[in-house]
Amino acid sequence: MPQYLVAIHHPDNYDGSLEGEAMVRDIDVLNEEMEAAGARFFAGGLQSARYAKSLRKQPGGEVVITDGPYLETKEHVGGFWILDAANMDEAVTWGRKAVVACRASVEVREFLAMPTE
Fold it and tell me: What is residue 2's three-state secondary structure?
């Protein structure tokens, strides 16, 4: 069964500690629903993007480490699920529920299937 990433996108100034208990309950309910359906493989929330470290390979092979996210954007990934789903439509159905529970935009993307020998 293919696996899909459902990534939650937050604005850069997002502070999850300011969210109410209702959102936490909604996410817990969604996690329980995903688990009961056998769809949830893994889920996790991420620290704020300001705590990220970015690593870039330089032309000479050296790796430079800088503070903050790699991309200069107004949003960042705040958390994610990895789901087992039959197809993109099923994964998008879970993504719709994630939008409601998390009160945020989400991205649904299928993992690359590596060819087997």
Answer: coil
Rounded CA separation 74/70 (Å): 12
pLDDT in tens, 78-111: 999 999 999 999 999 999 999 999 999 999 999 9
φ/ψ bin of 19: left (φ > 0), alpha (ψ from -120 to 50), beta (otherwise): beta
Query: Looking up tokens 């430079």, which residue turns up?
Result: 64
Instruction: Specify the length of the chain in residues.
Output: 117
Inform me whether the pLDDT recorded for 19 exceeds 70: yes
Nearest to 109 by CA among 49, 15, 48, 94: 94
Pairing of β 75-84 and β 63-67: unpaired
Q: Collect all residues with Cβ–Cβ distance below 8 Å to 99 and sequence separation of at least 6.
A: 105, 106
